[in-house]
Specification:
Blueprint lengths: L1 H10 L9 H10 L7 H10 L20 E3 L5 E10 L6 E9 L5 E7 L4 H14 L8 E4 L8 H10 L2 E4 L9 H11 L11 H17 L11 H5 L3 H18 L18 E3 L14
Parallel strand pairs: 2-5, 5-6
Antiparallel strand pairs: 1-7, 2-3, 3-4
Helix pairs in contact: 4-5
Length: 286
């Protein structure tokens, strides 16, 4: 009886409770442990009323859908890591990017040889200092990658008074702005298929992010540049655009059949997963 209880204890342990009987048997056997045959394991489980799908025994956590709103720069950042291919086979550089969701401005980036929580912590800390982030001001959103959920990053955010937010597992729509920014990067005509060294990758990113922030007219923010949006100059530029369109309309009103022209609308609120019927909101990037 004691031996039977020992076998059940192994089968129902935290380590093996989500595994099949065959998996438990093989794992223990490879570790030099033999309890009994697979058939005997099944017989003991049946006698104990535990022959249902063992995968259902583990209680997986329930993840809440993040609903995050930004109405100004430096309220909500999104960050992620993507791979940049090296010329060496199976070798990649890691590009860390922190993006302001409201303005689409890249507030921080780094190219490194590896992915690690310590490197992410350093980038986040320096970026918060550069943007003069005050405690309670910012929410930092990311997926559930190893670096994003590391204790190093969690402790830093707690020290800085930054609220952390994570996507649900395997839900890409929970982090759409970083994904869209990486797509813009890798669809650039000048984006190389591989980088010769990490200095090449850093030089390319230096040029790309200067273009992205200062030159690129982003469709998600009324065709403004991220720098204009982040610096609070959106109203000034929009008024200048309207003045140009007013002049064009007065010169040739017949060209505008329905109404006088207006510049593209600049959103005043940006959501990650907006609630139903959220007014003046924007759910996905362009």
């Amino acid at each position: 009886m004691a031996e039977q209880q020992q076998v059940l204890a192994w089968l129902n342990s935290e380590r093996f409770m989500d595994c099949s009987v065959a998996e438990v048997y093989a794992t223990l056997l490879d570790e030099g442990i033999y309890l009994c045959s697979i058939r005997t394991m099944y017989r003991l489980l049946a006698a104990d009323g535990e022959t249902q799908d063992r995968r259902q025994q583990r209680q997986h956590p329930t993840y809440t859908k993040p609903e995050l709103l930004a109405t100004a720069p430096n309220q909500l950042w999104s960050w992620d890591i993507t791979k940049l291919r090296s010329h060496q086979k199976w070798t990649y550089f890691q590009l860390y990017v922190i993006l302001d969701v409201f303005s689409r401005y890249v507030v921080g980036w780094m190219v490194a040889h590896r992915e690690s929580g310590a490197l992410a912590e350093r980038l986040i800390r320096l970026t918060c200092q550069k943007q003069a982030i005050e405690p309670g001001q910012l929410t930092l959103h990311a997926d559930r990658g190893t670096s994003m959920t590391s204790k190093t990053v969690a402790f830093l955010l707690s020290d800085l008074g930054v609220t952390k937010s994570h996507s649900r597992p395997q839900v890409s729509n929970d982090n759409p702005f970083s994904e869209a920014q990486f797509k813009t990067l890798k669809y650039q005509p000048t984006f190389p298929t591989q980088f010769g060294c990490i200095e090449d990758a850093r030089a390319f990113c230096q040029h790309f992010f200067a273009w992205y922030n200062q030159v690129h007219h982003h469709g998600g923010i009324g065709l403004l540049t991220p720098e204009v949006m982040h610096s609070g100059q959106a109203d000034v530029v929009t008024q200048q655009r309207q003045a140009v369109l007013n002049t064009a309309y007065l010169a040739h009103p017949e060209r505008f059949v329905h109404h006088p022209p207006t510049p593209p609308v600049v959103p005043n609120a940006v959501w990650i997963n907006p609630p139903i019927a959220a007014p003046n909101s924007q759910a996905v990037p362009h």
